[in-house]
Design a protein that fits this description.
The structure is a homotetramer of 242-residue chains. By secondary structure, chain A is of the alpha/beta class. Chain A has a domain of 156 residues: Class I glutamine amidotransferase (GATase) domain (Rossmann fold), CATH 3.40.50. Helix content of chain A is 24%, strand content 29%. Chain A has a 5-stranded antiparallel β-sheet with strand order 6-5-7-8-9. In chain A, a hairpin with a 4-residue loop joins strand 7 and strand 8. In chain A, helix 5 crosses helix 6. At the A-D interface, helix 6, strand 5, strand 8 and strand 10 of A face helix 6, strand 5, strand 8 and strand 10 of D. Strand 10 of chain A pairs parallel with strand 5 of chain D.
């Protein structure tokens, strides 16, 4: 219900785009720009940040001006500074939305917020993924068809070691015989989290209109509400019930 | 994310207001008008309907133009025509939001959608109710304090025989020793349902600013999304996977 | 934690077995006996009941001695007497477990307890179903592999118009491109409900050891606890808080 | 469904009992023995471990022989060795049950598994706590009354910064006007977690028969199932669907 544009920061590991020709061909400006462009077109205020920047581009100032943070990481999760992860986690608890994408299932921030290993099965074989909308009435499913296909995509399969999602929006079918909970909603503190599966770096997933629609919907859904900080600690004395 | 104003229909049994002076004094224009007025002020397009009208005021035309339906009933649940309940249920399944209030826990439409008795404990003793916000990050809690009090209110106490809510937004504390799940979210078909407890007819509950804020938030939350109807039945032949 | 054997009643429409040679070949003693035999072997006390019996075999006495009721129906849902459905529903609310199987997604009792249409997609093409265990730590998944296959099976596909399950234990993959929430847990009143998808009448599904294990586990999970009836209605006066 | 007795380890910080006369008077053998004694009487195989022991008493060997771990900590959470917390977390993921009690809401292990601050309101004023059973059909509620009182108890109040529980079994009412989600179920990996609120060290909470019944029920519920370890990582090649 906010009037001002939602402020999005797209964070990217930004490794494969600089080191692999195949990835550069698909995402010449980086995955972060591929994600940012359609969000800008949808009217959001969008900036990007990458792991190679000082403080990974996620300074206190940047986070203070971020309503929703997209996260794409893969090979360098272990090199993300714990102090930055602390900072992001504190912001999620205070209400910032977080959208971990694809291989970010193994990001420090997602693992910490879930409390599980977030491990899964995987296979890179250029196969078909068919994403079924399970919760059609959910805001993140708005305007989506009952299913849409991505081909080629990397397979992620169950078991996916996550807490049972508060809301399960999408389930993927894979050509090779697997299923996967591909769109999962959580709340941690005041912050809303939406994990979305698609996005292998060598495939043009983030150019897909349906994928872009899901991510835009998720930004709306995850944007913080007008909420005062939670108050904890010593409470009023017993006799003060008015 | 709809641009046009959300269209709300406030439905009321409209019995006590016409037969009990104490209720007339609190709600001179009926509970439906007390509910409609702040919703109009909040920018919604609001009409009212009452049980004594033909088809209870809920014709096909009225329902076709209703995004969210508020429901207040108490003594005459059994006199609500099953054909009208069928019609409302079909509309909820197709995406219309439904907000049953207070004694509507025993309405035919709520009971059908829940599949349980929806029975509970109760006491009219003018006591204090303290409503705690449990899910502060939820859209229905936006702008609400950590708790607010209503005094006097009727007590509703656990056990409340409902399915475990998809999201539990509010829990009430009562002076006499009871607790109650006072704000409960459900989805049935494409429709979103929010049961909200407060509202005894002899008390000025619906004039309370916090109560009005909750209901306005719930209307936003329950408004239907842009979703094509669900497709069921015989599916494509096996060989047609493209 | 009960010491005495759990008392199971297996209920069957019992139509196809008497009218279709292909079904008779697969289930010569009826689907009810195919379900009852492995449950007896597992140590449960099992009786059967069929739709063609007086009161559909579900008299007050039979239900009073039933801890968990299995339900298999398909073509004659509409001929099940509403008075018997009332009786079963009351027993579920009081704690009896209910396990609707396969085409019983359209049974009156399941529809009433869910509050939705329970509609879905379907296709009879003898295709492969691969059932993935999503909730490996759940009692109903005990001893099951990470997945098991049934071939041939009927396809059931999303959208499956049910309330989001309290616990989602199994998700099916189908050869033709569909997924389905195949093992869904609910509680209604004191009763526990487990919907389990497999079981087309022309296929030998209920002779499968994994299917039998799931059903036996579900009986354990759904068996009623030692619980006093819920007390509703007028509560103690305000001043009686001791 | 295990035949052998469930093996319980009761872990205690064991500080207050040795340093405060008032606590020693209530729990002369330590909170761990107060918890262990009724569990032994209920037929479980029980050992204890305390923070002051080498490796806090939680060696690999001890954990390997533990089906369910009870945890009571308060002042010395920060002194619990991270390596031991790693070990416990790995065991929970592999299926060990965990029952954090009272002030263990701030234990490292619970915070890690939740991904939130687990902060709350509190007040030590010897007031009445009335614990309402919300989920009467749940195994942890078996044999419990609709509510039971503890007086005196410490108040814990909302907001309680936890993920929405998978199952909410108990909600507490406090004399001073607060409510609290007192019995919360989670699954992380294959392990089941039940947080239970009561238990301030200066009050005789763990001598209460209802509290003891809840904890014994929770041990049954949290005990690991017969489950093979989850398999992750590289999956079968695409062409191997048999």
């Amino acid at each position: 219900m906010s009037v001002n544009p939602i402020r999005v920061t797209v964070w990217n590991e930004n490794l494969h785009e600089r080191t692999q020709a195949v990835v550069q061909a698909v995402y010449p400006d980086g995955i972060h720009e591929a994600l940012a462009t359609p969000l800008r077109a949808a009217g959001f205020t969008v900036r990007t940040a990458t792991q190679d920047q000082p403080e990974h581009g996620l300074t206190e100032d940047v986070l203070a001006e971020t309503d929703v943070l997209l996260w794409w990481g893969h090979r360098l999760h272990h090199q993300v500074d714990d102090a930055v992860v602390d900072r992001v986690q504190a912001r999620v608890w205070a209400g910032m939305g977080l959208i971990p994408l694809h291989s970010s299932h193994f990001s420090k921030i997602f693992n910490r917020l879930m409390g599980t290993t977030c491990n899964l099965k995987h296979r890179v074989a250029g196969e078909r993924e068919r994403i079924w909308t399970i919760a059609r009435g959910h805001p993140i499913a708005e305007g989506l068809p009952e299913y849409f296909d991505l081909k080629p995509e990397e397979m992620y399969g169950e078991p996916f070691d996550i807490p049972a999602p508060d809301e399960l929006v999408f389930v993927s079918w894979f050509q090779g015989g697997e299923v996967f909970r591909s769109g999962c909603c959580y709340t941690r503190g005041l912050g809303r989290i939406f994990y979305f599966r698609p996005g292998h770096e060598t495939y043009p997933t983030y150019h897909d209109a349906n994928v872009q629609r899901v991510i835009a919907n998720a930004v709306h859904w995850a944007a913080p509400r007008d909420v005062a900080p939670l108050r904890f600690g010593r409470s009023a004395p017993l006799e003060t019930l008015d």
